[in-house]
Amino acid sequence: MNDWQNVDSAPEGVEVMTKIDEADGVRNEQLMTRKGHLWWINYGTRDAMYVYYRPTHWAWPAVTQQEAS
User: Fold this and answer.
1) Binning pLDDT at 50, 70 and 90, where does residue 65 land?
2) pLDDT surpassing 70 at residue 28
3) Is residue 56 part of a domain?
4) How far is CA 16 from the centre of its chain?
5) What is the number of structural domains in the chain?
6) Mean pLDDT within 3-24
7) Using H for helix, E for strand and C for coil, what is the string for 9-37?
8) Is residue 44 included in any domain, yes or no?
9) Mean pLDDT for the chain?
10) 69: in domain
């Protein structure tokens, strides 16, 4: 379970879960990294790209069963 926080408190340079949560519902849940005012997918890789929107919320990624072992 994710503990969602306002995106203004998101850490910089760390991959976190993000989403847009507004009156129309929740959408665009994905891992992203904030650098300044830009949000990036796959930051630090050849496939990195920034998105043309600003998420409303962020949370630490959930630890998977495989990562825990």
Assistant:
1) very low
2) yes
3) yes
4) 4
5) 1
6) 96
7) HCCECCEEEEEEEECCEEEEEEEEEEECC
8) yes
9) 91
10) no
Among 14, 45, 47, 6, CA closest to 31: 14
Q: Which amino acid is at 3?
A: D
Handedness of CA 36, 38, 41, 44 (dihedral sign): negative
- Report if residue 68 sits inside a domain: no
Residue 63 has pLDDT above 80, yes or no: no
Hey, CA dihedral for 42, 30, 4, 20, is it positive or negative? Answer: positive
| Residue-number span of the structural domain to which 9 is assigned | 5-63
pTM of the model as a whole? 0.85
**Residue 51, both tokens:** 């998105």
Tokens of 44: 């630090």
